Request: fold
Amino acid sequence: MSVFTIHHITKYEYDRPVKESVNEIKIFPYASEDQEILQHDVIITDQPDILLYDDYWGNKTGSFNLLSPHKVMVIESKLKVRTSKDPNPQFPIPSFAKDLEAVIGKDLHLLELARTAESKSIDTMRGYIDLFYSSNKSIADTVKDCCQFIFTEFTYIKGITNIETTVDEIVEHKSGVCQDFAHVMLELLRMIGIPSRYVSGYICPNKNGMRGEGATHAWVEAFIPHYGWIGIDPTNNVWATNNHVKLAVGRDFKDCTPAKGTFKGPARQSLSVYVSVGYEDGQVFEEITDVQLQKQAGSEGAELIIDNLAGQQQQ
Reply:
């Protein structure tokens, strides 16, 4: 087991007052048997009431409003969590395509998470699949080999993609960050018929120096009959470990965005995101990202969609 202290601050600043800000946050650890919340405080500018509910995918979600004029909005999460994931899951009962077929048709979520998206790179991705998949391979081995293929064939480079980058674009230059690797892996597994979902969270400091540590991170969960949802990280070529803290799941990044919302009033806004992750041995990793967002055309009353990860991808 591992215990982490995670401090996550999202700060919006506006060059003139805005009002009627309506927001949604998904910064609460996902409810599961391998994550125990020891303490969690959420502090927001002006201390608005937070309406809590579970969304379609089972993510704990908060909704709040800042109605009065304001030039700053800060969303702060202070989390202490204990994780107990098995870093080397065992699959003594192998699962194959016929086992998936027996359960997918009875579950709307699994059907949706096995559905592929339209893509111009379909032929290229079919070629990828031919390199690591065979029909006599178990689901677990297929997932593991798909993860290794992406880790080996795609290059981890920050700054060349953003949250709007499509799978076609990622496949074209075969590089990106964790968010990109997760999106590609999701499509490859779904093309094979394996229900898969995007996972948003943190990857915490460790002596192995995993890619993306200390920042918001993304990986994949695949549905394996007899075992359920199993996490795997194509950015680091590992099954999800005690160093992975899960916040939200969904079809892709858009279902898991830690914060998003709208406000009224034209304004130039800037966004900064701070993440600090403390490990049991006292090691602390910090990351600060400053993002200049674009001015929205229009007069007062126009709505501007804000996304607290616009420009700050999950790394």
The radius of gyration is 20 Å. The chain is about 20% helix and 40% strand. The helical segments are 97-104, 108-113, 122-132, 139-153, 167-173, 178-192. The first helix runs from residue 97 to 104.
